[in-house]
Design goal:
This protein is mostly helical. Helices cover about 50% and strands about 10% of the residues. The mean pLDDT is about 85. The chain binds zinc ion. Zinc ion (ZN) binds next to α7.
């Protein structure tokens, strides 16, 4: 009788471990598939050419990107005054409970003036951003300033109020940027200005 119980226990244990190791193998395959990087999508500019210390380099990249992927317009020529700066929110701003949904500010003097760009970036946020998040934020602000886009409700869009999470990939940015350039995303809306 004891022998039978022992054999049963052995068989059961074997089956248990066998199924576990099988599942582990299966899970590893899934993980490997997820980790496999998709090759970078084609783009006519080099997104690694920007210098994180120079917000102007993001402007230059954006201007080139519009020119080479859409054939223009040349926003570098249209915008005669380009003012990009790092800001440190004052203690008063913080105490007043002002919350920022992303690290950048587009100002009225930029988006309501088609010949000027005026954007502030909170440095404390900026330094913690990944390379792709920095691109995402600057294109978002250029979206307000140059295209006069309002926010979108889809997190996959550049105009979503919060910058994409830190694990966002360059291809997510490139895909979102294509739609952004083509003025082709869900619920697109424009900021209206006094002179309109
Ligand atoms: Zn915004």
């Amino acid at each position: 009788m004891r022998k039978i119980i022992l054999i049963n226990i052995l068989i059961f244990s074997f089956l248990f471990f066998y199924s576990c190791s099988k599942r582990e193998k299966y899970e590893n395959v899934i993980l490997e598939q997820q980790e496999e990087e998709e090759p970078q999508l084609d783009s006519c500019v080099d997104y690694t050419s920007v210098n994180p210390d120079s917000l102007e380099s993001y402007w230059e990249l954006f201007v080139e990107d519009v020119k080479c992927s859409r054939g223009g317009p040349n926003y570098g020529e249209i915008n005669k005054t380009v003012t990009l700066y790092f800001i440190v929110p004052t203690a008063e701003t913080i105490a007043s409970g002002v919350t920022v949904d992303h690290a950048g500010y587009s100002t009225y003097s930029g988006y309501c003036n088609s010949e000027a760009v005026n954007i502030g970036v909170i440095e404390d946020y900026w330094i913690d951003y990944t390379e792709v998040q920095k691109l995402w934020l600057m294109y978002h602000e250029f979206g307000h300033d140059v295209y006069r886009y309002r926010h979108s409700s889809d997190p996959k869009d550049i105009m979503y109020p919060s910058v994409a999470r830190s694990d966002v990939k360059i291809n997510d940015f490139i895909r979102a940027k294509e739609k952004f350039f083509k003025r082709d995303f869900e619920g697109i809306e424009y900021i209206s200005c006094d002179q309109d």
